[in-house]
What does this fold into?
Amino acid sequence: MTRKIRGEISGMVSEVLIGDHLDSEICRSLERFDESLMFVSKGIPDPLRERISRIEGADRTYHLDDGELCKTIETYNNLVLMLLERNFPRSGLISYAGGGTLGDLAGFLSSTYKRGTPLHAIPTTLLAQVDSAIGGKNGLNASSVKNAIGTFHVPGMIFCDISVLNEKVLADGLSEVVKYGMIGDPSILEILESLTRENLIEDRGSLLALVEKSVSLKMKMVSEDLYDRKGIRSTLNFGHTIGHAIESATSNMVSHGRAVAGGMILESVIGEIAGIASEKYSGFIKRLLVDLGIELPRIRREDADRILSYIGNDKKVENGNIILNVPVSPGIPVGVKLEPHDFRKLLQEAILEYEK
Ligand SMILES: NC(=O)c1ccc[n+]([C@@H]2O[C@H](COP(=O)([O-])OP(=O)(O)OC[C@H]3O[C@@H](n4cnc5c(N)ncnc54)[C@H](O)[C@@H]3O)[C@@H](O)[C@H]2O)c1
It folds into this structure.
């Protein structure tokens, strides 16, 4: 059964359909537009790429390389030139089928081309379904800084079709699903505990429930705080302050989800040492992530300064202080400010615990 989650984000309606095989729903959504164009990731398996291309029509489908290297001003510039050459109108629909990297690129393009065109999303990784496609953020990288440039542009429709998921694209998203359990909906943790990575793809009911619960929580948070100014959306940053720094410090050799997994464990340990957490749950998170087959990044004590230097460029630094969002206990997040000196000490201690 198809589930629908509707959010009103800063006056813009965003509708998420969650189901198993949503081709006809995607097809119907195109009927409202005189012109449309879909960017499809070259990284998705050929049969799926052909299936999606058939929905949009070959002449309106544009196949793109994805990954962090597509989130550049050069790629963006080439796509703007291509749209101009096609006389693509401002009222035309831009859609994408791909992971979070293609979504960030297509989102930025549709947000800025002729000052903004409608956007639809077909996220094809679990991470994109539960996280990056929801909430209107997009971004391009500049130099080695991730998402250095970006806007807010909310997709009108998002199709979370679990039939496009496979074993390869679960791991990174599962870290984010664990995060949702920790910051807002502990029932997610109960479902995750009853699963292994191997049986998750077969257990369609649990997979649908995890996507639905995660999307609901994120949609609720971004509807209340699109621009990240009320301290609601920032709770989604649990694991990401350190996680983003791990990604940058390793030149993205460690994927987003693995970096967030490491970040959640380290930030939880910091929360425990600093007395922010009311109970010890870092061991639980670590065990859950490992049981779900997520390969944790290797981090050593001597990496602390490198991690800290990358955090300096992050938006989660305020007046020189580092902002962490850690749960007090599973489901209850809190934001804390730490001076760099204190943070460095705590991080070094946390890494010792992490290495055990
Ligand atoms: N805008 C936001 O709010 C937000 C939130 C979280 C993450 N992000 C961004 O999202 C990106 C990470 O997204 P991602 O994890 O989806 O990475 P990704 O887009 O790089 O996709 C990962 C890999 O999976 C492949 N792939 C995609 N769908 C597939 C499928 N169905 N089957 C097999 N392979 C498939 C891709 O080709 C790619 O090689 C990062 O750039 C991160 O910064 C953005």
User: Anything to note?
Assistant: The chain has a mean pLDDT of 94. Residues 41, 43-45, 48, 66-68, 98-102, 104, 124-125, 127-128, 131-132, 135, 137-138, 146-147, 164, 166, 168-169, 172, 256 surround nicotinamide-adenine-dinucleotide (CB under 6 Å). The chain has two domains: 3-169, 233-355. The longest strand covers residues 321-329.
